[in-house]
Amino acid sequence: MCSYLLNHITFCLMTLTQNTISKAVVASLLALAVFAGVTVQAATPDFDTTGTYEVKMTYLGNDYGHDVTLTQANDGTLTGNGGSPVGANVYTWVITSGTVSGNTIAFSADYTATADAVTPLTVMQVNGTIALDGSMSGVWSDNYQGGARSGTFETVVGVAEPIMATLAAEDFGVVSYDTGLGILKGYTAGFGLTDATFENAQSVVIKLYSGATLLQTNTATAQVGIDIVGTQISTPFDVSGTFNYATDGYWVNVRAAEYGQTMPATKVVATVTLEDGQVVTAENTMLVGDPTTIYPDVVEPPVVTTPTEKSQCKNGGWKTFTDPSFKNQGKCVSYVEHLDKHHDDDEDDDDEDEDDDKKDKKEKRYEKNHRGSKSGR
Predict the structure, then answer these.
(1) Which site from 20, 54, 172, 262 is most exposed, i.e. has the minimal number of CB atoms within 10 Å?
(2) Distance CA 47, CA 158 (A)
């Protein structure tokens, strides 16, 4: 797949550069090519925790309520503050670092009051998970007065909101080049996710259309969710090349009877079911390139200009001949009959000539033998 991706990006660079692409776009594509094989990527947040909460912190069997206010950036970075007891904060703290990644939340906070929590400074660590209903729970620890305390926590009031991922079309073009897995002579289509990744995606299905006619369907194998863990994906639709899907290992390609060999592709549609069950779709109708350049070569049958059989004259066939041409079907049939009679006459003549040759040879042998017998007397 990496071989296909890298070759695809190189081809795009060559094509786009010829069409005066900006330096910024070229730079971004080069960066993509360099990192196409990198699979390590921080998970995007599945939830937005921005809001106010009442959190129950348990320590040595006792519950301590905290007011908590969180603000989450698009990349999952957390800021915020809190304090206890609920509604009358005496002990207060402020988050110094924190993040939401996938369905996990973690942050570090410094106490700002009271004096016994500030000197020496008490630092609290919180690590938890976010349930599908938006509630949060986990463990906490701190170093109050130089010691080591720990316990559990859970939200009592307030829930995190799930972040709905989106899928966008990125490229859709006609291509013809050697991918390293065979010649790809057809189309490629790319899509990108926002607020999600392809890691452990349940399914990825991308369909190629000409108008409302389905031409080809590419269904991702499980390998896509394992190896492709970023936010972008690209798929090949071969029409007249030799691209080897089995060796590539990332797509199961199914073709209709008409798969693009005579009809131009006009639309590509992607449907992705993410790890958490969200389903996102996108389509692209902005095709770049000339589809006729990737149609298979068509071998035209030879044109018959002279009839050789009477059946060729029927059903209007007589109109198609030019050597000679005919005024009607009867003239065409008569012509063929004349050819057949002429052919038979030629065969009869050939037979007569053959008989004459045999007769001449027999007479010559007789004369030779007769002369020999006279000279012997």
Answers:
(1) 20
(2) 13
